[in-house]
Amino acid sequence: MNKGTFSIKYKDLIVLVLCVSLVIVNLFIGVTSRHPPQKFLRVEGTVSSSLSNDQHYRAYWEIPHIKKSKELHFYYHIANYTDTTKTIRVSVFIDYQQQLCKIGGEWKKVHLYTIEPGEYKKIPITLRCEIPGEHGLFVWSRLRSYEESPKSSSNLFYDNSSIAKTPKVKIIVKE
Amino acid sequence: MKYKSIFLYFIFFILLVYTGINIYEHQHILKPQVLQGLPRTSISTGILDENGDPIKEMPSVIYGNSYSFCIRLNSRNDKSLYLIILEDYKQSKFSTDRNEEKKYIHTIDLQKDRETRIKVTITPTKKGTIIIEPMIIDIYDYPYDPATNMAYTAGRFMNMTALALKVISDE
Fold first, then answer.
1. For an engineered disulfide with B149, which of A61, A69, A70, B108 has Cβ 3.0 to 4.6 Å away?
2. What is this model's ipTM?
3. How near does any CA of chain B get to the CA of A72, in Å?
4. pTM for the structure as a whole
5. Sign of CA dihedral A81, A82, A85, A86
6. What is the CATH architecture assignment of B41-168?
7. How many CB atoms within 10 Å of residue A104?
């Protein structure tokens, strides 16, 4: 009897260990295969950004079909979830090439913004694309200010700067 | 005791099914979208001078002249990457020892477990101390999510140490 009871307990223990192992396996799969955030998510300690055609949406992009040389208008949403003020340099890239874009009435390749902790900004951007076809567009913000460090011979090299990139969105330019 | 065992077996069965589904999704759904093709490219630190030696003090160049430096890259697999150069945050045209045409973007082919050195030549467009920042972009084509029309990432950017360069007047 005692032997039988022990045998059942032993089996139960094995099953229990297997259950725990499966839970660990599932947790591991969950961590390694988790979808990256497709949407504009609040992640503490980060600067998060996304694009939209409409100022009311934050993470949906209706593929615009624009004519060559016509202006494309869209919104860049950026939020500072860190506890420090960030100086950001906003640039628009089409097919990995930095573009002249209009923000606040000024056409430039790099636009400077300051974003306070907890602040959310919705920046209207205008640009033109001259090359017909399908292109990938994203907005890229540099978070580090080189000017914060003196440019002297002791500062020959600068550390990697952090960047906040939006997802890449599709645009179609027609003749 | 018997009921406990049955309950335990039931939990085990549920977990087994759940794990099976999870593994299937991981293999067939998530991996091709997000994980497959992620590069395992490592980049060694620093930028070297045009001869491949370490740079010990801030280099200088006369305005209008070209400046060359070397980028050292290592990859754990055969890989094609984009190389762009930022000059004080602005993308600038440059040439390499493989392609003398001045372009904004150069494609770099890396070979598995072999060090690649690329000589980059830029012509600074402004005077004073400028920051030269090479940036490597993994050109794996991330798929667009049909629900949002967005590709999760614009590419995998790997920026290297930025280099300060003094551009001086001819006088």
1. A61
2. 0.70
3. 17
4. 0.72
5. negative
6. Sandwich (2.60)
7. 10
